Amino acid sequence: VAEAAPEAPDTAATWSGEDVAPGDVEEALRHLLQEQYAHDGAHAPARVLNLVVVIDREWRGEIMNRLEQVGRYHASRTIVCAVDPKRDTIDASVAMTLDGQAEKEGLALMRERVVLEVGEKHLPALDTIVDPLVVTDLQTLIWAPHGHPEAVDALLHLAQVVLIDSVNEPDAASALSRAKELAQEAYVVDLAWLRSTPWRERVAATFDPPRLRDELGRIDSVTIRHHPESRVAGVLFFGWLGSRLGWRAGSLTEANGSSRGRAHAQRDDVALALEIDEEQSVPGLAGVEIHTSSGTSITLDRGPGGLIARRTDRKGKEQTWTVLGASRGEGGILGEGIRQALLRDPTYAGALACGEALLR
Amino acid sequence: MAVAERKEKQQDNPLTEGLERLPVPPTTLVIFGGTGDLAHRKLLPAMYNLAHEGALPERFNLIAVSRSEMSDEEYRKDIRESIEQYSRREPDPQVLDKLLEQVRYVPGTFDDDSVFDKLGEQIDKFDQDADVSFNRVFYLSTAPSFFALIVKQLGEHGLHKHDESDVRVVIEKPFGTRLEEAQDLNRELLSVLHESQIYRIDHYLGKETVQNVMAFRFANGMFEPIWNRNYIDYVQITASEDLGIGRRAEYYDSSGALRDLVQNHMLQLLSLLCMEPPVTFDADEVRDEKVKVLHAVAPPDEDEVVRGRYTAGMAEGKDAVGYLDEEGVPDDSTTETYVALRLEVDNWRWAGVPIYLRTGKRLARKVTEIAVTLKPVPHLAFQAEGSVGVQPNQLILTVQPNEGVSLSLGAKIPGTRMRIRPVNMEFLYGTSFLSQSPEAYERLIMDAMRGDPTLFTRNDEVEAQWRIIDPILERWEKGADPIADYAAGTQGPDEADKILKPGHRWRAI
Q: Complex ipTM, two decimals?
């Protein structure tokens, strides 16, 4: 059953049409922009990013809700392609949304949202439909949370960035393989990678004091606990450590839901373990534990108000503290994904390659 | 440090590559004046926001020192309310609880030795409990009269240095009220601390748009070729406010517009606008270039300065009283609420280009902007008849409220005749970036904890600023430069026109 898409807050002007051509939608966008500007010059069109979202029509409401939750990281023009398998024609609607009221002498933003109802038959040539609708010279980001690889492939030449969530793929190996394939055509922003940012920051901070820097070369075991469906997040985390520290990754072998393997570091081998945390309710990592051959260890776990860090020194003395930070929630993670589309993280590719080696 | 050496240092920790937030060493932050207005409205909400984003050092403690007698718990309750009221985002209760767990309060006056003994004990206790030598950052959010005393006390109690960690002192403005006072203060601070430990805050430099003046100039090849006396006719820097002095009569009447905004913020904008490209964006490279600009500016003569004071008028659609009728202002006050200056940067790049600064309260609207007017085109083939004609190009960098850049260009009016009028090409930050700019204090506190002084004012910079301003104050003390009146809600006194060179005009506020 198709869910009705929620109306965006502060919708200023709308247009809709049935059995339309892309040119009709483009013309409607232009007119609405002009009308809105004439009506209220205090609202300026945002010009940051095009976001093209390809979804199953039946889950449209859920995706629209997620898009509403991205906080301040809304794309300037969002083009939602809702796929109804049997549809032959294209219906479209356009809405101008206002970001708050223009205050005295202030500036308020206006964003455009286009919803295209398309059929499966449109997907292989979706670029010809979407191309006239993206704002020229802005970066274009593609997100296809329900798969539709043929649509993504068709749109790739229009886009500079593809947003994926590797935890949504059926298994870690195919997730990394797809990410690598996409990375050859565009910059990939992976939500599974972004969820691990606070963990990577904390591990980096742990070894940042010069007196602890040498310990990086003495890491002899790493254990990662993760949400039952987020194995790939753990593999990417290993991949990050391995690629940054110059480890040669061996293969992970699975047994009873957990995976074990080894990586070859300059001094010693590093024992790797991935374990499922059944109690973890949200996607991503649940805990990280790193030991060094000199007897120190650091563990990070989720806790109230941030990550709980525990460090044990070589004499067995233990320290526990909370590393402050609010949970971003899944809406926040998607917003972060949109924001990251405008930045470049050079370490993801290395993590991907090292992660793939672990799964061979 | 050589460029190669710096690169090597940055690459030391391979895990930081690609991270937006670089690790910050464990830090104990001490706020002197922890019950004051600045702490409650700005500093503590900034600390919370940094905690919320996971940007604070992974191990962090906060100690407040102030005169009011209260317990740790009472202080925590107090600041919880302030954070809830002034934070730019709704606080997450769990993060706030955890942040407050690390807060301690030391009551007492700054001349009391026992306060510094207790402070030292608490700092050591944090170190011992965590088995970590925390860096110490002392934030002096107090009246300026306490700066030297607090630093002296830190020195006498051995808190000004530590063998295993860095010690820094952040000092709020105003840094002196005259050149001599600033020099004395510098001397007193430097008798206890090394210059590299002193972070003189000018929150203007923490604003994204102020930093963007450098990005705009040095990341775009199209502007630098024309950024000189050959192409630029004159520059205007304006910082106007529509509000009056509110309840700040005590502070404002002893300060005035010149000290409040020109000596620090506006001269910072001038330096950033006129400086040569630094070799790198290292703190001292940038500050060296800024100081060179200030050294090239001579104090303005009498005919290059106008001061004014608002009288009754209309502001924000309501009747507004004149400055002398504001609550708390003495009847015989001679404080200026408006000042306009004409300066010149006497160096190869800028010689002969007037740089006009003006600031004031109760003007037509609130705006901070830099307007660069280019010289007119050398030959005009078009007729001006039937249009306003060709105007010199103007490049406007707006710092607030609508941060952005606009460029005025001559364009043909549609029709059969070749008539020209100026049009604007506009870029607005709000439309082009997803991220919200962090509060200036968040950025500056982080920089102080990280040990990056780029956006803080160095001692020679402060003294160079005062060398420009001091002679004006000296003249005013002798009664020179009469105060010109202007009605509240207007463009300022008409007398401001007299400092303009022929052919120049003030931009409408």
A: 0.89
